[in-house]
């Protein structure tokens, strides 16, 4: 639990690679949902 102590003390360095992968994953999810939404709207299926 040493990492938890460092986190609360402010000395914890976030793993940059993990944050980059998380950011890319979130962008991919947003892009896919946005595409699905636009497909539904352009086909006029919102009634």
Structure keywords:
about 45 residues; mainly alpha; 2 helices; about 75% helix; about 0% strand
Descriptive overview:
With 47 residues, the protein is mainly alpha-helical. It has one domain. Helix content is 74%, strand content 0%. The protein has helices at 2-9, 16-42. It is rod-shaped, with a radius of gyration of 19 Å. The protein starts with a helix and ends in a 5-residue tail after the last helix. The relative contact order is 0.08.
Structural class: mainly alpha
Amino-to-carboxy terminus distance: 53 Å
Q: Would you identify the regions where 5 or more consecutive residues have pLDDT less than 50?
A: none
Order of helices and strands: HH
Biggest sheet, in brief? none
As a whole number of angstroms, the C-alpha radius of gyration is 19 Å
Count of all domains:
1
Shape assignment: rod-shaped
Total number of strands: 0
Q: State which percent range the strand residues make up.
A: under 5%
**How helix-rich are the residues, as a percent range?**
over 70%
Number of helices: 2
> Average pLDDT across residues?
82
């Amino acid at each position: 639990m040493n990492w938890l102590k460092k986190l609360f003390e402010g000395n914890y360095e976030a793993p940059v690679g993990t944050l980059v992968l998380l950011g890319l994953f979130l962008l991919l999810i947003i892009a896919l949902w946005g595409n699905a939404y636009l497909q539904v709207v352009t086909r006029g299926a919102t009634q």
